[in-house]
Amino acid sequence: MSMQTLTLYRFPHSISQNAVVPRYAMSRSSEASFPTITTTSISFSQLQDKNADLSLKIEEGFGTNGLGILSVTDVPGYPSLRRNLLQLAPRLAKLPKEVKEDLEDPNSRYNFGWSHGKEKLESGKPDILKGSFYANPILDTPTTEVSFIQRYPSYCGSNIWPRNALPELEVAFKALGMLIFDVGLMLAYHCDQYVSKGMKTHKDEGLESILRRSRCHKGRLLYYFPSQQGDPDGNSLSSWCGWHTDHGSLTGLTCGMFTRDGVEISCPDSAAGLYIRTRSDQIVKVVFGKDDIAYQIGETTQILSGSYLCATPHCVQAPKGNKSSGIERSTFALFMQPDWDEKLNFPEEIHIHKELIPSNASLTFGEYSEMLLDKYYHQKQ
């Protein structure tokens, strides 16, 4: 198989470190010490129109002054597909222990099937607060090439479905994952149009082309277990998900579903949720509609776009207080990323992970990802 080549361009102008967040609706919650910002949004009908000029929206959400996130509204069929999958997360988590053990895949670093207590929190403790189920919603078996499976097991492995214990999961997971993927491709097209105004790109090097031909997209269904007294680490801003920046290309996110005793409820703590660190080093809480799909830029896209599209660090805070006792949360993320065999030609000047990437380096996305995984796993030991 021939490797696709991507040229990563040097950013032609400096990035302001004192950026002002533009034109967002901002409010300050009485329970939170950080501003609350509603994401920039694009309607599905606008996104469908390839002739629409969405550059201002793209810049507002993903540009050098943006938060690295925007949301897509009014996507046909999305609300029911979201509900169908998220309501299965508690049922999956409550399957018998032996059934869940059969869904584990240690060889992939638990990047396929069920994972619980395998990842570590920022404190270094095992993360027992949430369980995850990973699968590729586009391809059950991305490749049969043994050398690839051995080298990149977290991308090239095959899906593991609980087809006997919870057959509905596969159908719901693939349906939602595919929809978020399709909408993400539409968004990627408009991102390419925006980037092309500032830098020269080859026909096959745009974000849409990279994602369309990739075989290693990964969906993650997350379930946060209920606590009897609320989250014991609830005072930490990153109590549910530690600070990180996605290293892929584009991440599609659902709004979380909160339940107690199997009944959907509103989140009892207005301070809980997604937090982002801005380009000017401020922390803000970010919200979007329950029926909207949010998309975040990953580090690979920032490099590929010469930093015209920017990734940002983010975390998730758990609800706290007595009202949070017994609360469950379910959500879903789709990590859209280049193929493991996609060749990345890095520029002489690197703004991200420059301690890992030599000047003018040439790495596949699989090699690049392994370097990052080794770095982060080493840090957590």
Indicate the radius of gyration in whole angstroms.
20 Å
Characterize the overall form.
Answer: globular
Number of strands: 19
Order of helices and strands: EEEEHHEHHHEEHHHHEEEEEEEEHEEEEH
- How far the N terminus sits from the C terminus, by CA atoms, comes to 36 Å
Summarize the biggest pleated sheet.
10 strands, mixed
Give the percentage of residues in beta strands: 15-25%
Whole-number average pLDDT? 84
| DSSP summary: helix tally | 11
Low-confidence stretches: 1-32, 229-234
Percent helix range: 25-40%
| SS class | alpha+beta
Oligomer: single chain
Keywords: Iron, Metal-binding, Oxidoreductase
Family: Belongs to the iron/ascorbate-dependent oxidoreductase family.
Organism: Phaseolus coccineus
Domain Fe2OG dioxygenase: 216-338
Report on the structure:
27% of the residues lie in helices and 22% in strands. The chain has helices spanning 44-48, 55-62, 78-86, 89-93, 97-102, 146-151, 153-156, 168-196, 207-213, 299-304, 365-380; strands at 5-7, 26-28, 35-38, 40-43, 69-73, 113-116, 130-135, 218-224, 241-244, 250-253, 257-260, 263-265, 273-277, 283-287, 293-297, 314-317, 328-336, 343-345, 362-364. Strands 4, 5, 6, 7, 8, 10, 11, 12, 15 and 17 form a ten-stranded mixed sheet that branches. The protein has a six-stranded mixed sheet with strand order 2-3-14-13-16-9, with no helix packed on it. Strand 11 and strand 12 form a beta hairpin. The two termini are 36 Å apart. The relative contact order is 0.20.
